Amino acid sequence: MSDTVRQIKDRLNIIDIVAPYVELHKAGKNFKGKSPFSAEKTPSFYVSPDRGMYYCFSTSQGGDIFNFIEAMEGVDFKGALKILAEKAGVELVAEDPKKRSERDKMYSLLEATTIFYSEYLEKDREAVSYLEQRGVNKETILKWRIGYAPGPPNHGWRETKEHLNKLGYVNDEILKAGLIKTTDVGKDPFDVFRDRIVFPMAEPSGQTVAFSGRILHPDDKSPKYVNSPETLLYKKSELLYGYDKAKTGIRNLDFSLIVEGQFDVVMCHQAGYHNTVAVSGTALTLHHVQLLERLSDKVVLALDADRAGINAMKKGATLLLGRGLDVKIAELPIGMDPADLIKINKSDFRRVVGKSVHVIEFLLHVIRREIDDDRSFKLKVREEVLPFVLLLPSRIDQEHFVSRVAKFINSTTEAVRYELDHLREKSAIEKSQGHAEQESTIHANKTTKEVNGEDIVSRLLLFLSASALVVEDELCKKINGELKNVSEISELKKPSDSELAGTVFTLEQQFAELPKQAILSEITAKLNQLKTNLIRTRLAEYRGILADPENSQDEKRFTEALKSISNYEEMLREPAYSPETFLD
């Protein structure tokens, strides 16, 4: 553990780090609360202030304060280190620029580009005027670092590239960051973003990783919007535009507002909806949903009311409902998006959001609006609405909408319930088939691991490492000492933080109900099993060396193998560990 990490852990209490995200209650010497990673009803999230550990049994993840911040804020270890160092008042020593990784260099390049676009916006009156016409004020421009990427007709094709070259960045670095395109052999690469209002897209920590640009002077050849290609830093399936600025708003308002475009996001924030985000260049993904559900289990979709918008809404709602979230729809006037509505009258937009209805209610109204024939309408409801009822996690909620659907289509609850049961049975069959295939794969993988002995060793090491943390200090030192001696027999891969945390909380409950002698018997049995397993593995390796004809010609290697075999055979004859080993 580095000195910086140790200082941060010494200064910060894990309860203080977790409490802003999770409502915790005392549970013995630990704390307990509902998982921030899933929409659960029964608390399964444990925090140990003594050990500085947490574990979520519903999602099987855990670790220390760094793991927690990485998971909650969507940052890597460096990002978590920066956040926690600031909280702890620990100064991070600046890194030598010459030793910066490729990722760090790309972050630096993108930051320089963001500054360039921002400064260029101030020089271009047309770009500023366009933003003013869209209703974007100066404060919002600065907050969101909106810029202008110069290009034809008023500027050249390589303005951004040439600026970055002057700063010392080479073309290969700029290309990898997704800012230039290569062309015919012999010709200079040119800018990806030309003559565009540019929105920097940031990861959860707030660092720019990509851009989205809206053309300022439209023409027949250029698309309206251009987004950065995927890079080392940018994965469109993982990034939600505005999430870095919306995290606090989502927690405070207790719902996420999802819109379609960058203008919609910045205008919603400008109107006071600081919980607004948008997907960029892709449909809503599981990773997006996991980011949102950490902060609230409620979502409002405010997408365009055209057919494309409704289809996007249905796909997103399917994913959201499947994760147990409450999904409502803010129905916008036909032909208008949130940015347009806010510009005209933000009070109208607030009324639209305030009147948002459950996705099932919304679909019923949309289908009724589109289909006049009663029979066709009812069949369409069965086809498009009932699958959403089935996704609701609560049977009580399902029954509510059974009654609502029956009334809306002028049918009986029995008829609707019959159709729902039919869908449920069909879904159960499909799931069972999928589970059978998954179990087969898991069994095959498990069998392979057990043949190699890797799984056995991993499980034994995990149990013993966790046991050492659960027992009292003096016993812990003795177990760790013996474990170190055993581990030296062979190079062992340490358990992950998450595995260790989960096993610690599990053993803590089990050991609480056992006498000390029984605990020691279990630990010594596992330690003996691990030692024997590792010794036999090493013996097999050295006997393999002796059996190889090529090694018989290498006298030194042959002699070393014989000596090692003798040593390991002697270790096998050593007395086994007993509970008394740890009671001296």
Jot down its keywords.
584 residues; DNA primase DNAg catalytic core, N-terminal domain; alpha+beta; six-stranded mixed sheet; Dna Topoisomerase Vi A Subunit, Chain: A, domain 2; five-stranded antiparallel sheet; 56% helix; 17 strands; DNA Primase, Chain A
Describe the structure.
With 584 residues, the chain is of the alpha+beta class. The protein has four domains: 86 residues, DNA Primase, Chain A (Alpha-Beta Complex), CATH 3.90.580.10; 128 residues, Alpha-Beta Complex (DNA primase DNAg catalytic core, N-terminal domain); 171 residues, Dna Topoisomerase Vi A Subunit, Chain: A, domain 2 (3-Layer(aba) Sandwich); 129 residues, no CATH class. It contains 24 helices and 17 strands. A hairpin with a 5-residue loop joins β9 and β10. α3 crosses α4 and α15 runs antiparallel to α16. The longest helix has 40 residues.
